[in-house]
């Protein structure tokens, strides 16, 4: 797996982003590593905010911040030209820059020159390890639970992190396995599955969740969505390579269409996601089964949350939770019942 070292504390760089769901990298760091995130920088007045103190680059240096972390994840994963002046200034000030986008920091001449001049580091997270094998589909020891989504950016990472936290609190042997740039930044290791050449995606997933002891659970961060018109391919490869024993369907309350493709694609039902995940996942694990539903309820009134979750649970017949509001213990109890030690 890829291991990274990022020097804290962090300034979260938000560029010109105005949509919260496209600042999911920064939001994930603030949610799961709040002690490391000390400020934010937006280049526009109406930019998205993560609730951190606003700082200029010089104020960040004066406050002892060591790293500028690009907190956005735009479709296509680029770094806009309009951001380069600020990023160059950051490098010249001696701040490390960390990015999880597809564009490589080291491939931008002016950033590379600035970093060489000041001695700062340019850290590209979205670079897979070398010599990934083709997947073989062979049964591996240990157990695996994979997060699958009705869409992108619905809470797969948060669900996996919450499950790992709650499983450990319940005395279980479990580890979060990061398959995306934000998860890798949080965990310090993982494989950016969506940056792997397509022939090797399943092999990368096998490396991400290798053989382990019989009582061990890999809690695997999902990617994309099995019904997604743009990113379904990475979901398929991760599912087949992960060889999960169990999976959790993740969704965002109130979302009705694929984000970014709203005019063309309605979201699949939970039942459709379960059926298709089992159909594809059974290629490498015929015993695959769904153990719960994880819902991001941030977009519905708190007074409606309980009824919303209860309606899904009654319809689907599986424990349904908001992992950040009530924890994932009920899903874990179902997991334990389905897979007794």
Automatic annotation (TrEMBL):
Quote the SUPFAM superfamilies the UniProt record gives.
Answer: P-loop containing nucleoside triphosphate hydrolases
What is the top-level taxon of the source organism?
A: Bacteria
| Chain ranges of the D-glutamate N-acetyltransferase-like C-terminal domain | 134-331
Question: Where does the record place the D-glutamate N-acetyltransferase-like N-terminal domain?
Answer: 49-128
Q: Which InterPro entries match?
A: DgcN-like (IPR011669), DgcN-like_C (IPR035086), DgcN-like_N (IPR035402), P-loop_NTPase (IPR027417)
Protein name in the entry: DUF1611 domain-containing protein
Q: Which organism is it from?
A: Kordiimonas pumila
């Amino acid at each position: 797996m890829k291991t990274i070292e990022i020097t804290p504390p962090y300034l979260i760089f938000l560029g010109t982003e105005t949509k919260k769901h496209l600042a999911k990298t920064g939001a994930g760091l603030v949610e799961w590593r709040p002690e490391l995130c000390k400020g934010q920088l937006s280049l526009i007045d109406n930019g998205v905010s993560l609730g951190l103190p606003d700082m200029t680059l010089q104020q960040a240096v004066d406050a002892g911040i060591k790293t500028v972390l690009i907190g956005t994840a735009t479709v296509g994963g680029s770094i806009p030209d309009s951001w380069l002046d600020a990023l160059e200034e950051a490098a010249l000030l001696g701040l490390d820059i960390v990015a999880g986008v597809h564009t490589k920091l080291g491939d931008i001449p002016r950033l590379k020159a600035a970093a060489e001049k000041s001695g700062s580091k340019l850290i590209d997270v979205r670079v897979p390890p070398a010599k990934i094998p083709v997947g073989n589909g062979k049964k591996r020891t240990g157990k695996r639970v994979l997060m699958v989504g009705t869409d992108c950016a619905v809470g797969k990472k948060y669900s996996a992190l919450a499950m790992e936290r709650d499983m450990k609190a319940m005395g279980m042997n479990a580890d979060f396995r990061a398959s995306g740039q934000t998860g890798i930044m949080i965990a310090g290791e993982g494989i950016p599955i969506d940056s792997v050449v397509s022939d090797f995606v399943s092999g990368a997933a096998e490396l991400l969740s290798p053989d382990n002891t019989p009582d061990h659970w890999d809690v695997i961060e999902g990617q994309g969505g099995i019904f997604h018109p743009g990113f379904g391919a990475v979901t398929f490869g991760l599912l087949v390579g992960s060889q999960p024993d169990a999976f959790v369907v993740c969704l965002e309350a109130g979302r009705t269409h694929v984000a970014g493709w709203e005019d063309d694609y309605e979201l699949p039902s939970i039942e459709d996601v379960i059926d298709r995940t089992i159909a594809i996942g059974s290629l490498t694990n015929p015993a695959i089964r769904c153990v719960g539903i994880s819902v991001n309820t941030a977009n519905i009134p708190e007074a409606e949350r309980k009824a919303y979750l209860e309606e899904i649970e009654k319809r689907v017949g599986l424990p349904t939770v908001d992992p950040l509001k009530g924890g994932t213990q009920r899903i874990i109890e179902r997991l334990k019942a389905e897979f007794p030690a």
